[in-house]
Amino acid sequence: MKADWLYLLQGVANRLPVAGALYALVLLLSTYVLYLTLFHPLAKHPGPFVAKLTRPDSVYHAFKGDRHTDFLTLHKKYGSIVRFGPNHISINKAGVLEQINGHKINVRKSSWYSGFFSISIFNAIDHQVHARKKRVTSQAFSDQAIRAMEPHILSAIRD
User: Fold this and answer.
1) How many other C-beta atoms lie within 10 A of the C-beta of residue 43?
2) Angle, in degrees to the nearest 10, between helices 56-64 and 67-78
3) What global pTM score does this model have?
């Protein structure tokens, strides 16, 4: 009789680490899901539930080449601001662009822009470098310069 209890206790003791690891994994995943869906800074933005947790759907559409139509479908379903990944949102509203990229806005570009080999006006993270490059190119993109190029642009499009 004593040997049966000993055998039973050994079986429980052998399974305890597995159960503990499984419990820890479930607790960790539950905490991750709760954080991304309720407490993340982007949690207030609508989007597919799975997209709030992971990005394989977005990667699939990028690989398939129809990401633009997927974004259009998402914007039709969820509105002008859509969360399509744990840390990504898509904005389909013209007025918001000025709030993010406008003059004297205190928004800093992410470190993703530092992965380019050269620094241009589009990937300059430092505000002073961006201002210097903008000063050089601003005349080429002024209203007067663009209107002067309009006939050339239209002829290239029509030909």
Assistant:
1) 13
2) 130
3) 0.61
